[in-house]
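Work Package 3 (structural annotation) set out to generate three-dimensional models for the target panel prioritized at the project kickoff. During this period the team completed the workflow that converts sequence records into discrete structure tokens, so that structures can be stored uniformly alongside our sequence database. As a representative example, we reproduce one entry of 314 residues exactly as it appears in the project archive.
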Amino acid sequence: MTMEAYTAHETIRFVKEMADAKRPFFCWASFYRPHQPYTPVKPYLEMFDASRWGSGTRNGDGIAKPPSLEQPPAELPSLFQTWHQGKNRIWRLDEAVRDHQHFRNYLAAYYALVAEIDHHIGRILQTLEQTGQLENTIIIYTADHGDFVGTHGMVEKCAAGHNVYEDTLRVPLIIAWPGVGRARQVCDDLVELVDLFPTVLDAAGIVCREQAGYPLPGQSLLPCLTGQGRVDRRFAISENRLQTTVISASYKLAVSHDPQKIPPMLFDCVTDPYELANRYHDPEYLPVREALLHDLQQWQARTPGCGGACSAER
């Protein structure tokens, strides 16, 4: 049994128990992969043709080559360049650049692991339906980060850019709430994962009071889900130990905590969707850079380094 199958098995068992208990429940089903080890089971791996580059599995062809796979390493942050030079102890990207079969094998394994997770999520949803709980359950599907999956010639998340580049920064967010809002609606507003907690509280009718002068991070997405409003956010923030990124609807600014290893980056998400050209030092983008830096400073001024406790009232 794979880790994914085990997660699904335990989740299904819990869902059945809650159906018998006939009381509200919260279940967080966390699938470990796609992640190391990249060892998918054969039926899922055989779904993808890794023997050559093609137009994609949906077209009945070989795996599609990521559009920025062959971006020159010199255009990337220095930490990325060390991976391309084969200095990473796990990934030999220098070998993969010489023989793309290595890239294709990795992509096929990654896609196969995603396909298995998709299968097991289907089993969980089927159980909810079979136990009569599907129409009375809020389902949220998301992830903690993405993966380069060959873009920029990179693999995995690589901490030097996993909260900058769209491939690793942007994650799926699908919310299903039967009977609420319009089905299959798509919202392209700026949303952060910290919005999920206040959204769930709002949906459950729980009021979370401010403590120690520190408001609850994030905002409820309930108005967006019900069609009664949009997410009122001019910019979003993503940060880790290496850099902080400010994301607006059209631009993205990454400020490094160690500029020697990772330079500051500014991308035009409209004209450069693959994020190939760093515009940080481009005079034409100076007003954009200054505006985003101002937004970052405002956010830092109102966001303390530690949070407060939260008490709930029904």
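Confidence is low (pLDDT under 50) at residues 307-314.
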